[in-house]
Amino acid sequence: MKMVVSNLPEIQGFRFDSVGKVLRQSIIPGLPDDLALRCLAKLSHGYHGKLETVSKAWRDLIRSAEYGNYKARQGWCGNWLFVLTEGSKNEWIAYDPEADKWHPLPIPKMLFTTTPHIDLKHFGFSCVSVCNRFYLIGGSYAPHDSAFPHQRHFITNAVFQFDPFLKQWSNAASMVTSRSHFACCVVSGKIYVAGGRNLSTPRGLVLAEVYDPLTDKWEELPPMPNPQMDCLGLSYKGKFHVLSDQVGLPDQNTSEVFDPSDGTWCTVEDIWPFSRAMQFAVQVIEDDRIYTVVDWGESLIKTRDTEKGEWQNVGSVPSVVLPDHGRPLEAFGYGFAALRNELYVVGGKVLKWEESGAGRFDIVKLGLVRVCDPLVMPLKWRETKPMFGSACGSILGCASMEEGSSY
Protein backbone atom coordinates (compact mmCIF):
# COMPACT_ATOMS: atom_id res chain seq x y z
CA MET A 1 0.00 0.00 0.00
CA LYS A 2 1.57 3.29 -1.12
CA MET A 3 0.54 6.72 0.01
CA VAL A 4 0.61 9.40 -2.68
CA VAL A 5 1.82 12.74 -1.37
CA SER A 6 2.07 15.59 -3.85
CA ASN A 7 4.19 18.72 -3.51
CA LEU A 8 5.80 17.42 -0.35
CA PRO A 9 9.61 17.64 -0.63
CA GLU A 10 10.23 17.81 3.12
CA ILE A 11 8.48 18.09 6.49
CA GLN A 12 10.91 19.05 9.24
CA GLY A 13 13.18 16.02 9.12
CA PHE A 14 11.09 13.85 6.80
CA ARG A 15 11.71 14.03 3.05
CA PHE A 16 9.37 12.26 0.64
CA ASP A 17 9.67 11.13 -2.96
CA SER A 18 6.86 11.45 -5.53
CA VAL A 19 4.88 8.52 -4.11
CA GLY A 20 5.22 9.50 -0.48
CA LYS A 21 8.16 7.31 0.55
CA VAL A 22 10.42 8.80 3.18
CA LEU A 23 13.96 9.28 1.85
CA ARG A 24 15.52 10.49 5.09
CA GLN A 25 14.82 9.22 8.63
CA SER A 26 12.29 6.49 9.28
CA ILE A 27 9.00 7.43 10.90
CA ILE A 28 9.07 4.29 13.03
CA PRO A 29 12.34 2.34 12.80
CA GLY A 30 11.78 -1.20 11.59
CA LEU A 31 8.45 -0.50 9.84
CA PRO A 32 7.88 0.39 6.20
CA ASP A 33 7.27 4.13 6.03
CA ASP A 34 3.84 3.89 4.41
CA LEU A 35 2.68 1.46 7.11
CA ALA A 36 4.18 3.58 9.90
CA LEU A 37 2.45 6.73 8.68
CA ARG A 38 -0.82 4.82 8.34
CA CYS A 39 -0.48 3.65 11.96
CA LEU A 40 0.06 7.19 13.23
CA ALA A 41 -2.79 8.55 11.11
CA LYS A 42 -5.20 5.97 12.51
CA LEU A 43 -4.65 7.16 16.09
CA SER A 44 -7.43 9.43 17.32
CA HIS A 45 -6.98 13.13 17.98
CA GLY A 46 -6.85 12.68 21.74
CA TYR A 47 -3.45 10.99 21.45
CA HIS A 48 -1.82 13.69 19.33
CA GLY A 49 -0.42 15.52 22.34
CA LYS A 50 1.44 12.40 23.48
CA LEU A 51 2.64 11.64 19.96
CA GLU A 52 4.14 15.11 19.68
CA THR A 53 6.30 14.50 22.77
CA VAL A 54 8.09 11.54 21.17
CA SER A 55 10.33 13.71 19.01
CA LYS A 56 10.45 17.01 17.20
CA ALA A 57 10.10 15.17 13.91
CA TRP A 58 6.90 13.46 15.08
CA ARG A 59 5.55 16.76 16.40
CA ASP A 60 6.14 18.49 13.08
CA LEU A 61 4.61 15.59 11.18
CA ILE A 62 1.46 15.50 13.37
CA ARG A 63 1.02 19.26 12.98
CA SER A 64 1.61 19.31 9.23
CA ALA A 65 -1.15 19.96 6.71
CA GLU A 66 -0.05 16.90 4.77
CA TYR A 67 -0.75 14.64 7.77
CA GLY A 68 -4.23 16.12 8.12
CA ASN A 69 -4.86 15.83 4.39
CA TYR A 70 -3.88 12.17 4.46
CA LYS A 71 -6.35 11.49 7.29
CA ALA A 72 -9.00 13.41 5.36
CA ARG A 73 -8.47 11.30 2.24
CA GLN A 74 -8.98 8.18 4.35
CA GLY A 75 -12.00 9.66 6.16
CA TRP A 76 -10.40 9.17 9.58
CA CYS A 77 -11.92 12.16 11.37
CA GLY A 78 -12.19 10.37 14.72
CA ASN A 79 -15.00 10.71 17.25
CA TRP A 80 -15.60 14.12 18.82
CA LEU A 81 -17.90 15.62 21.42
CA PHE A 82 -17.81 19.42 21.04
CA VAL A 83 -18.86 21.47 24.07
CA LEU A 84 -19.07 25.18 24.90
CA THR A 85 -19.67 26.12 28.54
CA GLU A 86 -20.65 29.36 30.21
CA GLY A 87 -17.19 29.79 31.70
CA SER A 88 -15.02 29.14 28.64
CA LYS A 89 -15.51 32.54 26.90
CA ASN A 90 -16.17 31.31 23.36
CA GLU A 91 -13.46 28.62 23.52
CA TRP A 92 -14.83 25.24 22.56
CA ILE A 93 -13.42 22.05 24.02
CA ALA A 94 -13.56 18.57 22.51
CA TYR A 95 -13.70 15.10 24.02
CA ASP A 96 -12.15 12.00 22.46
CA PRO A 97 -13.84 8.86 23.88
CA GLU A 98 -11.05 6.58 22.65
CA ALA A 99 -8.33 8.47 24.52
CA ASP A 100 -10.71 9.62 27.31
CA LYS A 101 -9.25 13.08 26.92
CA TRP A 102 -10.54 16.65 26.64
CA HIS A 103 -8.60 19.28 24.75
CA PRO A 104 -9.25 22.90 23.76
CA LEU A 105 -10.00 24.07 20.25
CA PRO A 106 -8.54 27.32 18.98
CA ILE A 107 -10.91 30.27 19.25
CA PRO A 108 -12.11 31.10 15.72
CA LYS A 109 -10.05 34.04 14.47
CA MET A 110 -13.04 35.05 12.35
CA LEU A 111 -14.79 36.18 15.52
CA PHE A 112 -12.49 39.19 15.56
CA THR A 113 -13.80 40.34 12.18
CA THR A 114 -17.43 39.19 12.25
CA THR A 115 -18.46 40.43 15.70
CA PRO A 116 -18.19 43.99 16.99
CA HIS A 117 -16.46 42.91 20.23
CA ILE A 118 -14.55 39.68 20.80
CA ASP A 119 -15.40 39.70 24.51
CA LEU A 120 -19.12 39.19 23.88
CA LYS A 121 -20.92 36.07 25.00
CA HIS A 122 -22.18 33.88 22.15
CA PHE A 123 -25.57 32.21 22.70
CA GLY A 124 -28.73 31.28 20.82
CA PHE A 125 -26.63 29.63 18.09
CA SER A 126 -26.91 26.14 16.65
CA CYS A 127 -24.14 23.61 16.10
CA VAL A 128 -24.11 20.40 14.08
CA SER A 129 -21.65 18.04 12.40
CA VAL A 130 -21.92 16.91 8.79
CA CYS A 131 -19.51 15.63 6.14
CA ASN A 132 -16.67 15.48 8.69
CA ARG A 133 -17.00 19.15 9.60
CA PHE A 134 -18.35 20.86 12.72
CA TYR A 135 -20.51 23.92 12.03
CA LEU A 136 -21.27 26.86 14.34
CA ILE A 137 -24.28 28.73 12.98
CA GLY A 138 -25.83 32.13 13.70
CA GLY A 139 -26.83 33.21 17.19
CA SER A 140 -26.59 36.32 19.35
CA TYR A 141 -23.71 38.17 20.96
CA ALA A 142 -24.14 40.06 24.22
CA PRO A 143 -21.90 41.30 27.06
CA HIS A 144 -20.67 38.75 29.60
CA ASP A 145 -21.11 41.41 32.28
CA SER A 146 -24.74 41.74 33.40
CA ALA A 147 -23.99 45.32 34.47
CA PHE A 148 -24.93 46.38 30.92
CA PRO A 149 -28.43 44.89 30.57
CA HIS A 150 -29.61 47.51 28.09
CA GLN A 151 -26.79 47.03 25.59
CA ARG A 152 -28.33 45.75 22.37
CA HIS A 153 -27.66 42.19 21.28
CA PHE A 154 -25.94 41.57 17.99
CA ILE A 155 -27.63 38.80 15.94
CA THR A 156 -25.63 37.24 13.14
CA ASN A 157 -26.01 35.05 10.07
CA ALA A 158 -22.34 34.02 10.16
CA VAL A 159 -21.34 30.38 9.89
CA PHE A 160 -17.99 28.92 10.98
CA GLN A 161 -16.70 25.43 10.25
CA PHE A 162 -14.06 23.43 12.12
CA ASP A 163 -11.86 21.01 10.19
CA PRO A 164 -10.99 18.06 12.48
CA PHE A 165 -8.12 17.01 10.22
CA LEU A 166 -6.26 20.33 10.17
CA LYS A 167 -7.75 21.45 13.52
CA GLN A 168 -8.57 24.84 12.08
CA TRP A 169 -11.62 27.09 11.81
CA SER A 170 -12.69 28.79 8.61
CA ASN A 171 -15.66 30.77 7.33
CA ALA A 172 -18.49 29.00 5.57
CA ALA A 173 -21.17 30.75 3.54
CA SER A 174 -23.44 32.90 5.70
CA MET A 175 -27.14 32.19 6.09
CA VAL A 176 -29.52 34.29 4.04
CA THR A 177 -31.26 35.44 7.26
CA SER A 178 -29.67 36.44 10.56
CA ARG A 179 -31.29 34.49 13.39
CA SER A 180 -30.89 33.22 16.94
CA HIS A 181 -32.72 30.57 19.02
CA PHE A 182 -33.74 28.70 15.89
CA ALA A 183 -34.34 25.09 14.86
CA CYS A 184 -31.45 23.33 13.16
CA CYS A 185 -30.55 19.77 12.21
CA VAL A 186 -28.94 17.62 9.52
CA VAL A 187 -31.11 15.67 7.09
CA SER A 188 -29.52 13.55 4.36
CA GLY A 189 -26.20 15.37 4.51
CA LYS A 190 -27.61 18.92 4.44
CA ILE A 191 -28.15 21.46 7.22
CA TYR A 192 -31.70 22.76 7.66
CA VAL A 193 -32.59 25.84 9.72
CA ALA A 194 -35.96 27.43 10.40
CA GLY A 195 -37.64 29.94 12.69
CA GLY A 196 -35.91 31.76 15.50
CA ARG A 197 -35.82 35.50 15.92
CA ASN A 198 -33.86 38.57 14.92
CA LEU A 199 -34.04 42.29 15.59
CA SER A 200 -36.55 42.92 12.79
CA THR A 201 -38.84 39.97 13.70
CA PRO A 202 -38.65 39.49 17.49
CA ARG A 203 -41.87 37.45 17.66
CA GLY A 204 -40.66 34.60 15.53
CA LEU A 205 -39.65 33.83 11.95
CA VAL A 206 -41.37 31.70 9.33
CA LEU A 207 -38.27 31.74 7.14
CA ALA A 208 -36.32 28.54 6.51
CA GLU A 209 -33.26 27.62 4.46
CA VAL A 210 -30.95 24.69 3.70
CA TYR A 211 -27.16 24.49 3.37
CA ASP A 212 -25.28 22.08 1.13
CA PRO A 213 -21.74 21.56 2.50
CA LEU A 214 -20.57 20.18 -0.85
CA THR A 215 -21.31 23.46 -2.64
CA ASP A 216 -21.03 25.82 0.37
CA LYS A 217 -24.34 27.46 -0.54
CA TRP A 218 -27.57 28.28 1.30
CA GLU A 219 -30.92 28.01 -0.47
CA GLU A 220 -34.17 29.48 0.80
CA LEU A 221 -37.02 27.06 1.49
CA PRO A 222 -40.77 27.70 1.46
CA PRO A 223 -41.78 29.51 4.67
CA MET A 224 -43.30 27.57 7.55
CA PRO A 225 -47.08 27.72 8.05
CA ASN A 226 -46.58 29.42 11.43
CA PRO A 227 -43.77 31.53 12.94
CA GLN A 228 -41.59 29.77 15.50
CA MET A 229 -39.10 31.11 18.01
CA ASP A 230 -37.03 29.44 20.72
CA CYS A 231 -37.49 26.25 18.73
CA LEU A 232 -35.62 23.01 18.36
CA GLY A 233 -34.78 21.05 15.19
CA LEU A 234 -35.06 17.30 14.93
CA SER A 235 -34.07 14.98 12.09
CA TYR A 236 -36.37 11.98 12.16
CA LYS A 237 -36.93 9.45 9.37
CA GLY A 238 -35.68 11.77 6.66
CA LYS A 239 -37.74 14.81 7.64
CA PHE A 240 -37.01 18.12 9.39
CA HIS A 241 -39.16 18.57 12.51
CA VAL A 242 -39.44 21.99 14.17
CA LEU A 243 -40.58 21.81 17.80
CA SER A 244 -41.74 25.08 19.31
CA ASP A 245 -41.22 26.22 22.89
CA GLN A 246 -44.90 25.48 23.52
CA VAL A 247 -44.82 21.72 22.96
CA GLY A 248 -46.13 19.75 25.91
CA LEU A 249 -48.47 22.52 27.04
CA PRO A 250 -52.26 22.00 26.84
CA ASP A 251 -53.56 22.48 23.29
CA GLN A 252 -50.02 23.20 22.07
CA ASN A 253 -48.80 19.84 20.80
CA THR A 254 -48.21 20.77 17.16
CA SER A 255 -44.91 20.81 15.32
CA GLU A 256 -43.96 21.92 11.83
CA VAL A 257 -42.50 19.21 9.58
CA PHE A 258 -40.64 19.73 6.29
CA ASP A 259 -40.34 16.90 3.77
CA PRO A 260 -37.28 17.43 1.53
CA SER A 261 -38.60 14.91 -1.00
CA ASP A 262 -41.43 17.20 -2.12
CA GLY A 263 -40.38 20.53 -0.58
CA THR A 264 -43.54 21.01 1.52
CA TRP A 265 -44.37 21.85 5.12
CA CYS A 266 -47.19 20.40 7.19
CA THR A 267 -48.39 20.92 10.75
CA VAL A 268 -48.44 17.71 12.77
CA GLU A 269 -50.24 16.94 16.01
CA ASP A 270 -47.82 15.17 18.30
CA ILE A 271 -47.04 14.54 21.95
CA TRP A 272 -43.72 15.48 23.53
CA PRO A 273 -43.09 14.77 27.21
CA PHE A 274 -41.22 17.96 28.06
CA SER A 275 -42.97 21.24 28.70
CA ARG A 276 -40.47 23.33 26.79
CA ALA A 277 -38.23 22.68 23.80
CA MET A 278 -34.93 22.75 25.69
CA GLN A 279 -31.82 23.28 23.58
CA PHE A 280 -30.51 19.77 24.17
CA ALA A 281 -33.77 17.98 24.94
CA VAL A 282 -33.79 15.40 22.15
CA GLN A 283 -31.26 13.04 20.62
CA VAL A 284 -31.85 10.68 17.72
CA ILE A 285 -29.67 7.59 17.32
CA GLU A 286 -29.54 5.77 13.98
CA ASP A 287 -32.36 7.94 12.58
CA ASP A 288 -35.22 6.32 14.51
CA ARG A 289 -34.28 5.85 18.19
CA ILE A 290 -35.41 9.04 19.94
CA TYR A 291 -34.34 9.89 23.49
CA THR A 292 -35.41 12.94 25.42
CA VAL A 293 -34.56 14.26 28.85
CA VAL A 294 -37.29 15.76 31.03
CA ASP A 295 -35.43 18.28 33.16
CA TRP A 296 -38.26 19.73 35.25
CA GLY A 297 -37.57 18.34 38.71
CA GLU A 298 -37.59 14.72 37.53
CA SER A 299 -34.49 14.43 35.31
CA LEU A 300 -36.03 11.45 33.53
CA ILE A 301 -34.84 10.01 30.26
CA LYS A 302 -37.59 8.75 27.99
CA THR A 303 -37.66 6.93 24.68
CA ARG A 304 -40.35 6.75 22.05
CA ASP A 305 -42.05 3.73 20.53
CA THR A 306 -41.67 4.58 16.85
CA GLU A 307 -44.84 2.75 15.81
CA LYS A 308 -47.25 3.81 18.54
CA GLY A 309 -45.71 7.19 19.28
CA GLU A 310 -45.86 6.49 23.02
CA TRP A 311 -43.13 7.51 25.46
CA GLN A 312 -41.57 5.18 28.00
CA ASN A 313 -39.21 5.82 30.88
CA VAL A 314 -35.67 4.55 30.32
CA GLY A 315 -34.20 5.76 33.60
CA SER A 316 -33.08 8.95 35.25
CA VAL A 317 -30.10 11.25 35.14
CA PRO A 318 -28.06 10.38 38.23
CA SER A 319 -27.91 12.79 41.13
CA VAL A 320 -24.67 14.57 41.99
CA VAL A 321 -22.84 13.85 45.23
CA LEU A 322 -20.37 16.53 46.27
CA PRO A 323 -17.45 15.49 48.49
CA ASP A 324 -18.35 17.98 51.23
CA HIS A 325 -22.12 17.62 51.07
CA GLY A 326 -24.14 14.82 52.58
CA ARG A 327 -27.16 14.49 50.33
CA PRO A 328 -27.50 13.90 46.56
CA LEU A 329 -28.28 16.97 44.46
CA GLU A 330 -30.23 17.33 41.20
CA ALA A 331 -28.26 18.93 38.37
CA PHE A 332 -29.65 21.43 35.88
CA GLY A 333 -28.34 23.29 32.84
CA TYR A 334 -26.40 20.28 31.58
CA GLY A 335 -25.80 19.15 28.02
CA PHE A 336 -27.45 16.03 26.61
CA ALA A 337 -25.73 14.39 23.63
CA ALA A 338 -25.42 11.11 21.77
CA LEU A 339 -22.09 9.71 20.60
CA ARG A 340 -21.36 6.17 19.38
CA ASN A 341 -24.82 4.95 20.45
CA GLU A 342 -24.29 6.19 24.01
CA LEU A 343 -25.92 9.09 25.85
CA TYR A 344 -23.81 11.77 27.51
CA VAL A 345 -24.81 14.14 30.31
CA VAL A 346 -22.23 16.94 30.44
CA GLY A 347 -21.61 19.71 32.97
CA GLY A 348 -24.43 21.70 34.52
CA LYS A 349 -24.93 23.13 37.99
CA VAL A 350 -26.33 22.17 41.38
CA LEU A 351 -27.70 24.19 44.30
CA LYS A 352 -25.68 23.31 47.38
CA TRP A 353 -27.92 24.05 50.35
CA GLU A 354 -26.55 24.75 53.79
CA GLU A 355 -26.91 21.73 56.06
CA SER A 356 -28.08 23.99 58.89
CA GLY A 357 -31.36 24.59 57.08
CA ALA A 358 -30.86 28.37 57.04
CA GLY A 359 -32.18 28.54 53.49
CA ARG A 360 -28.92 29.73 51.96
CA PHE A 361 -27.21 27.97 49.08
CA ASP A 362 -24.24 28.16 46.74
CA ILE A 363 -24.35 27.51 43.02
CA VAL A 364 -21.72 24.89 42.18
CA LYS A 365 -20.62 24.61 38.55
CA LEU A 366 -19.94 21.06 37.41
CA GLY A 367 -17.37 19.63 35.04
CA LEU A 368 -18.76 16.11 35.38
CA VAL A 369 -19.27 13.91 32.33
CA ARG A 370 -21.50 10.85 32.66
CA VAL A 371 -22.25 8.22 30.03
CA CYS A 372 -24.63 5.29 29.61
CA ASP A 373 -25.77 2.81 26.97
CA PRO A 374 -29.55 3.36 26.72
CA LEU A 375 -30.10 -0.23 25.50
CA VAL A 376 -28.68 -1.73 28.71
CA MET A 377 -31.39 -1.81 31.35
CA PRO A 378 -31.38 -0.67 34.04
CA LEU A 379 -29.19 2.24 33.01
CA LYS A 380 -25.61 1.90 34.20
CA TRP A 381 -23.92 5.28 34.33
CA ARG A 382 -20.16 5.70 34.38
CA GLU A 383 -18.05 8.81 34.76
CA THR A 384 -15.49 9.69 32.13
CA LYS A 385 -12.74 12.26 32.38
CA PRO A 386 -14.25 15.57 33.55
CA MET A 387 -13.91 18.81 31.65
CA PHE A 388 -10.92 20.93 32.60
CA GLY A 389 -10.06 24.46 33.67
CA SER A 390 -12.81 27.04 33.29
CA ALA A 391 -14.91 24.64 31.18
CA CYS A 392 -17.76 23.88 33.57
CA GLY A 393 -21.28 24.93 34.46
CA SER A 394 -24.19 25.49 32.09
CA ILE A 395 -23.73 24.16 28.57
CA LEU A 396 -24.22 26.70 25.78
CA GLY A 397 -23.48 24.36 22.89
CA CYS A 398 -23.04 20.63 22.46
CA ALA A 399 -22.71 18.42 19.35
CA SER A 400 -21.01 15.19 18.35
CA MET A 401 -19.13 13.95 15.29
CA GLU A 402 -18.63 10.27 14.52
CA GLU A 403 -16.12 8.67 12.22
CA GLY A 404 -17.74 6.82 9.37
CA SER A 405 -20.95 8.86 9.50
CA SER A 406 -21.70 11.28 6.66
CA TYR A 407 -24.82 12.80 8.25
From TrEMBL:
Residues 29-65 form the F-box domain. SUPFAM superfamilies: F-box domain, Kelch motif. It holds the Pfam family F-box. SMART domains: Kelch. It comes from the Eukaryota. Residues 122-317 form the FKB95-like N-terminal Kelch domain. InterPro entries: F-box-like_dom_sf, F-box_dom, Kelch-typ_b-propeller, Kelch_1, Kelch_FKB95. Coiled coil: none annotated. Keywords: Kelch repeat, Repeat. PANTHER family: F-BOX DOMAIN-CONTAINING PROTEIN (PTHR46344:SF28), OS02G0202900 PROTEIN (PTHR46344). This is F-box/kelch-repeat protein At1g16250 isoform X1. The lineage of its organism: Eukaryota, Viridiplantae, Streptophyta, Embryophyta, Tracheophyta. The gene is LOC107407370.
